[in-house]
Amino acid sequence: MPIATVNPATGETLKTYQAMDEQEIERRLELAEATFRTYRTTGFAERARLLNRAADLLEEDQEEIGRVVTTEMGKPIRQARAEAVKCAKAMRWYAGHAEELLADETPADADVRDSGASRVVVRYRPLGPVLAVMPWNFPLWQVVRFAAPALMAGNVGLLKHASNVPQTALYLEDLFHRAGFPEGCFQTLLIGSAAVDDVLRDERVKAATLTGSEPAGRAVASTAGEMIKKTVLELGGSDPFVVMPSADLDRAARVAVTARCQNTGQSCIAAKRFIVHDDVHDAFAERFVAGMKALRVGDPMDEETEVGPLSSERGRADLEELVDDAVRGGATVLCGGERPDGPGWYYPPTVLSGITREMRIHREEAFGPVATLYRAADLDEAVLIANDSPFGLSSNVWTGDEAEADRFIRDLEAGGVFFNGMTASHPAFPFGGVKRSGYGRELSGHGIREFCNITTVWHGA
Predict the structure, then answer these.
(1) Which residue out of 234, 364, 365, 404 is catalytically annotated?
(2) pLDDT at 1 over 80
(3) Residue 461 has pLDDT above 90, yes or no
(4) Exposure of 47 in the CB half-sphere (CA atoms within 13 A)
(5) Which InterPro entries match (predicted)?
(6) Neighbours of 62 (CB within 10 A)
């Protein structure tokens, strides 16, 4: 895949970049290692000052970088600006909380005495250069939620961004440079996927984090395992959205539309499988389909657009294949289901019912504005359908019954359970999944400690 900006609203290639050669990659790896040796000794106050400055600049740039993001991957412009603001918020959160999250810990006095020590301290120390392999769908947020905690912990970052968002990737390097971070603290590697393996094998790279596809996750995890390097993986998701009889149906249906179609449905944590109790299935379906039909699809630069184009021609083709396979298997199209005429990689908001386990869309992630609708006889069947997926990223449950809520918390196989709302990420809460959705956690204290050397310091009596 070429490293290029291709406008998904028109299909026009706007700018193409040469991949960095081996000499440039080597120069950047040397710089990352050298910078880490000094940056690791800076205090939290200085790191926070720099990160707060980066947040200020990002907010100032939100209109400019928002238009770049929209041009490169098709995100509706209002959502692109909001993504920039969210990133600034996360930067400020880590700037304000990192020192507390990484404070030295002292074990219980009885345990210290039992060990024969006079004093024991657990300290969090940075690891070194961390390689981040990041996707195009949230091209600012996915990077910042790695970079902010990594930099506050004293690590340095190497970014291999998706090849279709090179301008965004270069902007992020420049953002941290303008904020005053030492050269080499955060660098973008303009390289193709084939070059990742060699970078990850380099002894100067101490760990890696990846958000992306299962094949990419397997490749990075395999190499990292061979090299005995820490990894965090956030892979696909096919999140359930369960609606029980006690739910507020009007609100549930409204939120369901947003949960499925935010970012044109191209989100790992978008609700994708809508599992509705028999007693309210038809009433919910009527509201949900009406809401999906009402969404405004169009030019992502238009302030009123709610659904833009998919990010690539291949992405649209993959989505069409899933829908066509379901229809051939007997699924019913309640709305959408056919690509529109004209330029750009658009696909309409679509709802399918009558899904069976034999259909690909039941097991695979639909990365676009396509929802599947299921009917459940009771809570037990709702849980069975929800868990009948190789993924376990997050989940959404609509119920007013506390006993039901307890059951869902206990039984759903997911990294998050969101009640009477939609899944969203926040810097204060851990984010990640189970099963084939990956392992490890981003955000919160859990996220910043993922790439720390947790060191036991023992002093004899």
Answers:
(1) 234
(2) no
(3) no
(4) 28
(5) Ald_DH/histidinol_DH, Ald_DH_C, Ald_DH_N, Aldehyde_DH_dom, ALDH_GabD1-like, GABD/Sad-like
(6) 18
pLDDT tens-digit series, residues 134-173: 999 999 999 999 999 999 999 999 999 999 999 999 999 9
Q: For 3-235+437-460, CATH number?
A: 3.40.605.10
CATH of domain 239-426: 3.40.309.10
| 261 catalytic per annotation | no
Q: Where in the chain is the domain with CATH 3.40.605.10?
A: 3-235+437-460
For residue 158, which amino acid is it?
L
CATH 3.40.309.10 maps onto the chain at 239-426
Check if 234 is active-site. yes
d(CA 398, CA 252): 7
